[in-house]
Write a structure and sequence with these properties.
The protein is 35% helix and 12% strand. By secondary structure, the chain is of the alpha/beta class. It folds into 2 domains: 269 residues, Rossmann fold (3-Layer(aba) Sandwich), CATH 3.40.50.10540; 95 residues, formyl-coa transferase, domain 3.
Length: 418
């Protein structure tokens, strides 16, 4: 995790002009070694005003939200609505492998910064636009939010309580900016595909990512089931949405926790029922599961709700971790529903060094950040720096790398271009 070896995307320069829609895509590449240059308007972008804030004191350099999504990036300020800013951007684009942007559809071309224009001097350039509904179509210019996409894309209709548990319950949205994460992952995958194409052909290309389509593609089986059978999936409390009825799998434990099993405990067959019943019998809670009738597949098929009821009673008499670890020892894929505090102290994540320290030298402090989902043994992932301060690398990038003199930079600053 702490290796100083270059990451797999080392040498790949990315110009990032994104807000909440696609900043996570930029982070994915930056933490893998890409030179991601975060381009903000003078004074910083709006996502710096999103809380929570360090020590509960609001400020553009104190947004923990901004910190999280912008690790390993360098940062400059540039007003691309001004001719002078556009000239600077064109020079930057000539040095880049990718332009990643999330402005409203058609905005970049309206400034004379379309893909065709930028790639004329850089044929290998890739440009990826992440917008709510894509660059065309009847919804192209609709206003949007994360919740709108989860509603319109299909996730919300499949999420929440089933009618048996909470009659007339409305759909419930997944939390945590899921639509933006979904779109960012698809954008990242698309960019990797474009890089692969460029390796063979030398040609860049334009990628039009629609958050709406990304969400509609990520509805588990809801769309596929409807297309093939015409059935609408039902919401099921704490379990996968499906078109059919299914027993509950989320159960309370006697210490206030909750555990998730899988259908009927774990897609039970005769052998697994015997193993489970013997364990439950050690606690005097097997009820009738040791009965030989449960070795008959036909009886098993009809008894899903009964198994769920017996499990519910079993867990109600057992603490969470004993239930979770006991089930895992018997190869039942059960999972404890955990709080953030429990996740932070997870010994498995600690063993894999998932959480990493990141220095904030301007504060004289070190903060803990979440790490990657994969460990690379040859070209490691790492957070190379904390999120950039506003305009932190103006002189380094515009002066040192593009060749603008100090007087040039002062003139651009007076014009409001940087």
């Amino acid at each position: 995790m702490t290796s100083q070896m270059p990451g797999p995307l080392a040498g790949f320069r990315v110009l990032e002009l994104t807000g909440e829609h696609a900043q996570f895509c930029g982070k994915l590449m930056a933490d893998l070694g890409a030179d991601v240059i975060k381009i903000e308007p003078p004074g910083g972008q709006e996502t710096r005003e999103v809380g929570p804030f360090l020590d509960d004191q609001a400020g553009p350099e104190r947004s923990l939200y901004f910190w999280h999504y912008n690790t390993s990036k360098r940062g400059i300020t540039l007003d691309i609505t001004k001719p002078e800013g556009q000239e600077v951007f064109r020079k930057l684009a000539a040095t880049a492998g990718l332009v990643l942007e999330s402005f409203p559809a058609g905005y970049m071309p309206s400034l004379g910064l379309s893909y065709d224009s930028l790639s004329a001097d850089n044929p290998g350039l890739i440009m990826c636009s992440v917008t709510p509904f894509g660059q065309d179509g009847p919804w192209r210019d609709y206003q949007t939010s994360d919740l709108l996409h989860l509603a319109a894309g299909g996730q919300m209709a499949s999420s929440g309580y089933d009618v048996e548990d909470v009659p007339d319950a409305p759909p419930i949205a997944p939390g945590g900016g899921n639509a933006w994460h979904i779109a960012s992952h698809y954008a990242y995958i698309g960019i990797m595909g474009a890089l692969y194409h460029r390796d063979f052909t030398g040609e860049g290309q334009y990628i039009d990512v629609s958050v709406h389509e990304a969400c509609s593609l990520t509805t588990e089986g809801a769309i596929a089931i409807y297309l093939s059978t015409g059935e609408v999936v039902r919401r099921h409390t704490g379990r996968h949405a499906s078109a059919d009825m299914s027993p509950g799998i989320q159960h309370a434990t006697n210490d206030g926790g909750y555990i998730n099993t899988t259908r009927s405990g774990s897609n039970l067959n005769a052998a697994r029922i015997k193993v489970l019943a013997e364990w439950m019998d050690e606690h005097g809670l097997a009820q009738d599961l040791l009965d030989e009738k449960y070795q008959d597949p036909a009886v098993i098929e009809e008894s899903g709700q009964h198994f769920a009821d017996v499990l519910k009673n079993f867990f109600a008499n057992m603490p969470l971790m004993e239930a979770y670890e006991g089930g895992q020892e018997l190869n039942f894929p059960w999972g404890a529903i955990r709080t953030m505090g429990e996740i932070i102290g997870d010994p498995h994540l600690e063993d894999r060094e998932f959480f990493v320290p990141v220095e904030h030298p301007e504060l004289g402090r070190e903060f803990t950040y979440p790490g990657p989902a994969a460990i690379y043994n040859a070209s490691p992932w790492r957070i190379s720096r904390r999120a950039p301060l506003i305009g932190e690398h103006n002189e380094e990038i515009l002066g040192g790398e593009l060749g603008f003199s100090k007087s040039d930079l002062e003139a651009l600053k007076k014009l409001g271009a940087i």
